[in-house]
Amino acid sequence: MDEIKALEDESIYLIREAYNKFKNIAMLWSIGKDSTTMLWLVRKAFFGKIPFPVIHIDTGYKFKEIYEFRDRYAKEWDLDLIVYKNQEALDLGICPEKGRFECCNQLKTMALKKVIMEKKLEAVLLGIRRDEHGIRAKERVFSVRDEDFEWNYKEQSPEIWKQYRTGIQEKEHIRVHPILGWTELDIWKYIKRENIPITDLYFAKENKRYRSIGCETCCSSLDSEADTVEKIIQELETTNISERSGRVQDKESDYMMQKLRSLGYM
Amino acid sequence: MEKLKIVIVGHVDHGKSSLIGRLLYDTKSISEDKLTEVKANCKSGHLDFAYFLDHLQEEREQKITIESTQTFFKTLKREYVIIDAPGHVEFVRNMITGASKADTAVLIVDVEEGCQEQTRRHAFILSMLGFHNIILLINKMDVVDYQQERFEETVKECVQFLGRTRINVLHCIPISAIFGDNVAFASQTMTWYKGKTLLQALDQLTLGEKDKKELCYPVQDVYYVNDQRMAVGMIESGVMKVGDEVMIMPDMHKASIRTIEKYKESLTEAHTKESVGITTDTPVYLEKGNILIHTDSRLLPEKKYKANVFWIAKDPLTIETKLQLQCVTQSTLCKVTSIFNKINTSTLEAITNDDECIRSLEMCEVEIQTKKQLVMCSVEEIESLGRFVLICNNNICGYGIIS
Q1: Residue among B32, B37, B275 minimizing CB distance to A241
Q2: Interface contact A166-B394, CB threshold 8 A
């Protein structure tokens, strides 16, 4: 079996397993290439009709292309879309200039915390991948967060022979990572194979493109001539620059990502 | 070609993380910005290879691996996923999680220290997980001046021990992970060694032909799609075709496969590891935990099984305690009714004084009684029906193998 097909079958299995175990579930969609790929897999897993909400955590600082893409496909794919903003933090003037750590923590993590509490979610599907960042490489597919959202990476349950966490204690929730084992290259090969629509930000314009997207304020573009999926695949097969090199939250200090994640960041 | 997943195991400090760092470095799998970051964080001046993998703050400060990590590299031959498994005994469940996903295993041993407690336990766990062929690396050859005699002594000790498990050693390679001897490039110093480098040995491995075993399709869930009930699941072994006569276990009802479906796709057949939906011709009731097999199968539902169990929870398992058993999508309450042949997994010595409970990190044979009927068999017959986990309070506490 070819590798990409094997990854698809495995991810679909995990998505169905998550839904079978946790009925109060939702998925996070950042509109980036990974979570859009995950959304595609979720649609396939449920034969076109997703039986749970799709949540966009909106920091208010996203690219305008992201909002356009979101609204267009939410309609076309008939999604139960929930857009969630930490308005209180925004009203207090939280922004990257006043501290990136607090900005990420308030506008992403705290927003997620609120939506999980409000919707009483037991599980959320997230499109993170192991090869993106060393800390994410330590993740489980079914990963528990306690009521304070903390990730106890020293006491993670074993996962073996396709047996995953079966339940949670009160106030805990599970992060399910169905595409944890995919690489960046796998994602683009799958996008090509399935012809998945992806926002234009990834494709080079005037010799610049984004390789990883988030908030406009904290993403930088890289030199690239890759303006098609094929050219991106070609570029990735030869590059020696890491995927999230344009993402500020990974760089500020060596452990910023670990600190963010231990507080519940995706 | 499919990626090859390698797990690297061994005693703490025998050099697992350093070896992986070296592999990534020599195959140019570390990005420029990452390398700059690592250089900036290395105080001593020379590159600390373990730093590439040990990302958690405590891991870097204490120089130990806590959680298994997966990283990627490629050669001209194929792509690899390396799973780095922690060596400390407290993290043995992380090691098992890592190892259970691998296609092949590499055991690394410090030439000076030889076989240690975790070397033995890891080898034993590998054997239990079904790894019968491994690559043995004797590391830190630089420390013993690259002497052939020292290498051979340590190999002899390891092979003697491994002879007591079901593990067969494919290659014994003398290496220095720090200096790169025989990892990606042949050693310039150990000219007495005529064998392969680690990369050559890996590139040469072939994944066993996916067994042409009998059909096993565990039902994972049942959905309503276009107003009809459709079972979904992943085929664990064998091939399923439209029109096949199947038996629905454990109730032994018969049906025939009407359709095999994926989203916007109708298939005539589906193979091992495919996630598919199915409908049957007669309206049989399907639910999670049903196993579909061909009607000529000899599998029968049972409530009593003999198995080998490896216990990892802190609290011991006592006879007659109720706990949950899961095997593929099947789940039921069960209890251990008797315990025999208990073994200490680090010395492999028999434990004779105590047959009422299984303590942490012990392994034994047990007789298990399940509340519901299940379909399980030996791993040799159908791999996935010969493996199960034991669960208490939502956590996996033990592993079982039927052989």
Answers
A1: B32
A2: yes
B393 located within any domain: yes
Give Cα separations from A204 to A209, B67, B241, B260, B361 (angstroms).
4, 38, 45, 41, 54
Write phi, then psi, for B365 (nearest 5 degrees).
Answer: -95, 145
The answer on B196 and B221 residing in a single domain is: no
- Report helix, strand or coil for B298: coil
Residues pairing with A25 in the sheet: A123
Same domain, A101 and A138: yes
Beta-carbon contacts of residue B38 (< 8 Å; ≥ 6 apart): B30, B47, B48, B51, B52
Distance between CA atoms of B68 and B91, rounded to whole angstroms?
A: 9
**Tally of domains within chain B:** 3
Do residue A27 and residue A119 come from a single domain? yes
| Terminal-to-terminal C-alpha distance of chain B | 31
Question: Mean per-residue pLDDT for B51-64?
Answer: 58
Number of domains present in the structure of chain A = 2
The number of beta carbons lying within 10 Å of the beta carbon of residue B296 is: 9
| pLDDT tens across the length of chain A (266 residues) | 588 999 999 999 999 999 999 989 999 999 999 999 999 999 999 999 999 999 999 888 888 889 999 999 999 999 999 999 888 888 888 888 888 888 888 888 888 888 998 999 999 999 999 877 777 777 889 988 887 777 877 677 778 888 988 778 888 899 999 999 898 899 999 999 999 999 999 999 999 888 888 777 778 888 889 999 999 999 888 776 667 666 666 655 556 777 777 777 77
Say whether both B363 and B317 belong to one domain. Answer: yes
Whether B180 and B250 share a structural domain: no
Q: Beta strand pairing status for A222-223 and A208-209?
A: antiparallel
The minimum CA-CA distance between B153 and chain A, rounded to whole Å, is 35
- Quick check: B66 and A154 CB within 8 A? yes
- Shared-domain flag, residues B231 and B352: no
Residues B189 and B306 in one domain: no
Do B61 and B127 reside in the same domain of the chain? yes
Domain that holds residue B261: 217-294
ipTM score assigned to the predicted complex: 0.89
Query: Quick one: average pLDDT of B101-109?
Result: 89
**Model pTM?**
0.83
How far apart (Å, rounded) are the C-alpha atoms in residues A242 and B137? 30
C-alpha B186/C-alpha A89 separation (Å) is: 58
Q: Which domain holds residue A144?
A: 3-183+252-262
Same domain, yes or no: A82 and A198: no
Beta bridge partners of B398: B311, B390
Residues of A in contact with B71 (CB under 8 A): 131, 137
